[in-house]
Amino acid sequence: MGRAFVYVILGGGVAAGYAALEFARRGVAHGELCIISEESVPPYERPALSKGFLLPEDPARLPSFHTCVGANEEKLTPKWYRDHGIELVLGTRVKSADVNRKTLITAVGETISYKILIIATGARALKIEEFGVRGSDAENVCYLRNLADANRLVSVMQSCNGGNAVVIGGGYIGMECAAALVTNRIKVTMVFPEAHCMARLFTPKIADFYEDYYESKGVNFIKGTVLTSFENDSEGKVTAVILKDGTRVPTQMVVIGIGIRANTSLFEDQLTVEKGGIKVNGRMQTSNNSVYAVGDVAAFPVKLFGGDIRRLEHVDSARKTARHAVDAIMAPEKTGDLDYLPFFYSRVFTLSWQFYGENKGEVLQYGDFSSGRFGAYWIDKGRIVGAFLEGGSREEYEAIAKAVKLKVAVKDTAEVERQGLEFALKVSQLVIPEGGGVVVEKQVYNWHAAAGVAAAASIAAFAYWYGRRRRRW
């Protein structure tokens, strides 16, 4: 028993949906493309799960956030896949793969063969059992990675209204779930081993702003320690968490957000694995030329970082690597290496931040932290390699992105710090010659001062208005 396709996408997350849309735009014939997914629904925008899906009023629900609405593209409903002749093999686990024979074997024994395979298996949530703590099978212990997890979390939240929750982890999932729990009128205690939240990205000063904001919403932080065990009642529900420093925290529910691990196991003995993911070249092609990898599972060279191999766990990377892989497959003669600008964002409560590049080198922080209008630049070897902004407008975010993309050379760091956001806005107005660069010295500001002041004033006014218009997920 078996089926054969020209193209198979293994995995049904964000990357799969964006790859399918690109295949359709490039004229893939009916019956040539298949998507295999363990989930029972077509690909959807995963960020919605930790944002709009968890709202107590008018929550986001499918089909409203199927891909590719997160990038203001078509909504790929089941009908869309049928209309484009794309086979959806849902609720199906692949138990083995043979890249030499170009076959996949499902859990029920079906053989699915291909000419070109795109691995979009994404990542899984790390379980506390992997750190020696038992008990995540309790009905009030939740993770958040897929739709089933989100449905379970909503159910547990609804039974915990007015109660207490413990969030383990101070990263993306921990911060966004904590905000959602507070919005659902649940008291939250966050526990993580680092000195401050979002330790992989935030500076201590930036972290202080968000921690202060969360505390104003009633969130309690316990930092510098980890979960070691649970206390359970006679029905097996968790009633308290016990921390390494001996602290006992009573609770009615627990949310675990301690990171993810790429799903590479099917291919680790067949393809090159690096940085925890499947290594690909700039065209998203693996060590086997008939196999590509995209999204969270792919470790690819980033031009901005001198071609260093990175695995980037973010929806933007999933979208863009998926599209680039399809471009490379369908139009190889017209497709070069991916030139990707690393991008991360989050939206919690009324806050919204974006980050581009990497947080490496000297950091310059600017703005009014008390009002929530602030940012930072990271300068390494005399060039801007990273930029962060809270509360910006679209134009302002585009400006900091351009400053990073150009790797602007800075000789006067004090002046850049003084200029703050205005510095990026001025850089964004420059016309850069092909292959040219930008060197920012004190004198450069004199060139552009007259034109820049008027432009910056109008942009700032627009930013105040635009910044209030936020999407729900």
Automatic annotation (TrEMBL):
Residues 341-424 form the Monodehydroascorbate reductase 3-like C-terminal domain. The chain crosses the membrane at residues 447-467. Residues 7-321 form the FAD/NAD(P)-binding domain. InterPro entries: FAD-oxidoreductase/Apoptosis (IPR050446), FAD/NAD-bd_sf (IPR036188), FAD/NAD-binding_dom (IPR023753), FAD/NAD-linked_Rdtase_dimer_sf (IPR016156), MDHAR3-like_C (IPR048618). The lineage of its organism: Eukaryota, Viridiplantae, Streptophyta, Embryophyta, Tracheophyta. It comes from Iris pallida (Sweet iris). GO terms for molecular function: monodehydroascorbate reductase (NADH) activity. Keywords: FAD, Flavoprotein, Membrane, NAD, Oxidoreductase, Redox-active center, Transmembrane, Transmembrane helix. Its cofactor is FAD. Belongs to the FAD-dependent oxidoreductase family. It comes from the Eukaryota. It holds the Pfam family MDHAR3-like_C. This is monodehydroascorbate reductase (NADH).
